[in-house]
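Practice problem 4.
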């Protein structure tokens, strides 16, 4: 039997038992959609229920924060090239726990540029941890320090 636990450093769901949550999600079926998970979580006696914000005012405020993060991440710099293969360059980046800053400003400031490079490396390392069990990617993952 595989045992579930919560990721280290992510305290959001620690009030719920990870194993019970995983079992409830698996009970939905072979593949569970987010909608099915939320529906199951509506049962106040489920372990999943503890993982959600049920106060609609608080949930709405959290959703708007999520929307703000999403919209900032979907703004790209127009390169003047209408080609679909043209690279999309993010307009804003977030460095450390600060706010979002224009990429152009970051690229001009050495300390912020170095912080962005460190964040990019941390993202690559997270990608490596996430997909380390896929042997087909070994040649790519070996390039990440």
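Answer key:
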């Amino acid at each position: 039997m595989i045992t579930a636990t919560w990721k280290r450093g992510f305290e959001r769901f620690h009030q719920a038992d990870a194993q019970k949550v995983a079992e409830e999600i698996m009970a939905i079926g072979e593949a569970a959609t987010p909608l099915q998970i939320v529906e199951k979580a509506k049962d106040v006696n489920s372990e999943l229920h503890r993982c959600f914000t049920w106060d609609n005012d608080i949930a709405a405020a959290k959703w708007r924060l999520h929307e703000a993060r999403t919209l900032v991440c979907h703004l790209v710099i127009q390169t003047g090239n209408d080609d679909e293969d043209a690279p999309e360059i993010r307009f804003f980046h977030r460095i450390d726990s600060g706010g979002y800053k224009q990429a152009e400003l970051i690229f001009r400031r050495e300390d912020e540029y170095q912080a962005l490079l460190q964040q990019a490396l941390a993202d690559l390392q997270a990608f490596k941890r996430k997909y380390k069990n896929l042997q087909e990617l070994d040649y790519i993952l070996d390039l990440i320090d």
